[in-house]
Design brief:
Shape: elongated
Oligomer: single chain
Largest sheet: 3 strands, antiparallel
Distance between the termini: 57 Å
Helix content: 40-55%
Number of helices: 18
Order of helices and strands: EEEHHHEEHHHHHHHEHEHHHEHHEHH
């Protein structure tokens, strides 16, 4: 006999599924199976089957379910025709006597715990965890109603995710990144906010010589976190991103990984001098942002899913949106944005400050300019979602640049940030030159962090919002410190600062932040 809970609930005898009855009866069976060889009190059965809404007299209903389950188990024979499982009534409650190895969930638990045992070698660990992960057929207790079933599903999903991360890390340490690249991408759709899983996937792409895909994968994660949580990647993922950008090799595993680096990252380029001179009019009439010609990091390439035990290679690259984005950028540059390639000069790594090693850091102002310009092109086409995705990318690239060399990169990026803020409905109550100075000085002013936070969250305002008033209100709010990094900006404090700025400058009657946003 075989019992399956990792998917739809099934009891199989001689390879054939048995009729398990109603969903309610399946919940009773599942409770007993999950607690195999442990007593379950009648009160616990009532709670797990009906939750907060039990019938007036639930015991006769449970007795009927238990009677039918006993009959079902009598038909499910083990080797030699022996009874494989039985339900017993004991003083502490009802107990399902069954071999845990005949239940997929308990085999999964044993294998995962075995894969956790140090100092297990990675070869054995990867094989054990792969065997555990292959037991997963779908949503645990699929189709069963109730809060208890939902709680079990959430718990076992977390165990699966932990096992998946450990399996992928073991495969990576063994020098087998192709196995990770083949199996993990499809699974990230099930766990879209699991940074450890994305971390090992990006590591593996980089180790396999697929640096462009690793960078694009980081962009996907960055946008997803911004859209779902209003935050950015954690420090470990950001550190890995900088490693990939710099072209540094990942820590080697016992076996060698592919040596071919098919897509070395470009050298850093920042404006050595001041940004192109603006027109002396209001910020909304400022001179167009200079966008040097540059290439994108390439489109994300997916990988086909294979079994954990046998995964070996990813799917061939698929064509992405790179050419379309570059075409839009070229059209925008020709019509709206004058090209100023001469404004960008190579910045040697030793000019970025200590601690960066030899050779140029692989991130560029060109890339940030390209992304800001792409966002404007999408805006002009009325494609708000695509525009926001490009702005999110631009914000994070800008953050990396400012972290590398704030005195050089922040002033060069300030005009692009201004232009993007203007499209978002942010106005400016101080002179353009003063505003550029403040945006170009992230060390001493919160303007860059707050501006990036507004852009990252994709807000578009229908009422006038003055950036200087927002910054002042934020800094005068008790509690949060004046932010100098994007990660330090508190969303609720920022919302309150924006709302207050519209009331003090324009007397708007908005009482809720969402009333200021475009639908």
């Amino acid at each position: 006999m075989e019992v399956r809970l990792l998917g739809e609930v099934e009891v199989r005898s001689a390879g054939r599924p048995l009729d398990l009855g109603t969903p309610q009866q399946q919940v009773v069976l599942a409770v007993l199976v999950v607690n195999a060889r442990r007593p379950v009190a009648m009160e616990a059965l009532v709670d797990r089957v009906w939750g907060d809404d039990p019938p007036a007299n639930p015991r006769p209903v449970l007795y009927a379910h238990l009677s039918r389950i006993r009959g079902l188990l009598r038909r499910a024979t083990g080797p030699g025709g022996a009874v494989a499982a039985r339900v017993e009534r004991r003083h502490a409650g009802y107990v399902l006597e069954i071999d845990p190895e005949s239940v997929d969930l308990h085999r999964f638990r044993r294998l995962v715990e075995q894969g956790e045992d140090p100092p297990d070698d990675d070869v054995a660990r990867a094989a054990t965890l792969a065997e555990a992960l292959d037991l997963w057929r779908g949503e645990p207790l699929a189709g069963l109603p109730g809060a208890w079933a939902a709680q079990v599903r959430a718990s076992w999903h977390q165990r699966r995710l932990d096992a998946l991360v450990r399996w992928a890390q073991a495969e990576f340490r063994l020098g087998r990144p192709a196995a990770v690249i083949s199996a993990v991408p499809d699974l990230t759709a099930e766990y879209p906010l699991a940074e450890p899983l994305e971390h090992v996937l990006i590591q593996s792409l980089h180790a396999a010589g697929r640096g462009a895909e690793a960078l694009d994968r980081y962009g996907v994660v960055r946008r997803r976190l911004a859209e779902e949580l209003g935050t950015g990647p954690g420090e470990e993922l950001r550190t890995l991103y900088r490693t990939v950008l710099a072209g540094d090799r990942p820590p080697p595993g016992p076996a060698s990984v592919t040596e071919d680096r098919s897509d070395p990252a470009p050298a850093v380029a920042v404006a050595a001098g001041p940004a192109p001179a603006p027109a002396p009019a209001a910020v909304t009439d400022e001179a167009s942002l200079a966008v040097p010609n540059g290439t994108s990091h390439g489109a994300f390439v997916g990988a086909s899913f294979g079994s954990f035990a046998g995964a070996s290679a990813g799917a061939p690259p698929r064509a992405g949106g790179t050419f379309r984005r570059r075409a839009l950028l070229a059209a925008l540059a020709a019509v709206v944005l004058p090209v100023a390639t001469s404004a960008a000069h190579a910045l040697r790594r030793d000019e970025c400050g200590p601690g960066h090693g030899d050779g140029p850091p692989a991130v560029s102002v060109e890339r940030a300019w390209e992304l800001f310009a792409t966002a404007e092109a999408f805006d002009q086409e009325g494609k708000a979602h695509d525009a926001r995705a490009a702005v999110v990318d631009a914000v994070w690239v800008s953050e990396e640049l400012v972290e590398l060399a704030p005195d050089r990169t922040a002033p060069a990026l300030a005009p692009a940030v201004l232009r993007a803020l203007g499209r978002a409905g942010v106005d400016f109550g101080i002179s353009r030159s003063a505003l550029l100075d403040r945006l170009g000085d992230p060390v001493r002013t919160p303007y860059p962090a707050i501006s990036h936070a507004i852009l990252l969250r994709g807000w578009r305002f229908t009422a006038p919002v003055f950036l200087d008033a927002v910054v002042r209100n934020y800094e005068h709010t008790p509690g949060p410190a004046s932010p100098r990094h994007l990660a330090d900006v508190h969303t609720d404090t920022l919302k309150a600062a924006v709302l207050e700025s519209t009331r003090t400058r324009h007397g708007t009657r908005s009482t809720e932040f969402d009333q200021l946003l475009a639908p």
